[in-house]
From TrEMBL:
This is Uncharacterized protein. It comes from Syntrophotalea carbinolica (strain DSM 2380 / NBRC 103641 / GraBd1). It comes from the Bacteria. Residues 1-58 are annotated as: Disordered. Residues 27-41 have a biased composition (Basic and acidic residues). Residues 7-16 have a biased composition (Basic residues).
Length: 58
């Protein structure tokens, strides 16, 4: 790994060179957890609707 002095990094940015952004794994994990939670709640809601409808039919 090559470590450049701060003034060299600044010049690189001015010339249009940019470093790759570091991935935000915490954000990705949170989004995945929220999606999983929403899917679980949707399943629960459908299951409850189905249980409410079945006794009425009998």
């Amino acid at each position: 790994m090559v470590v450049l002095p701060s003034h060299s990094r600044r010049n690189m940015r001015r010339k249009g060179y940019t470093m790759a952004k570091k991935p935000n794994y915490g954000y990705e994990k949170r989004q995945k957890e929220l999606a999983k939670k929403a899917k679980k709640e949707e399943k629960k809601r459908k299951r409850e609707e189905k249980l409410q409808q079945s006794p009425e039919e009998e």
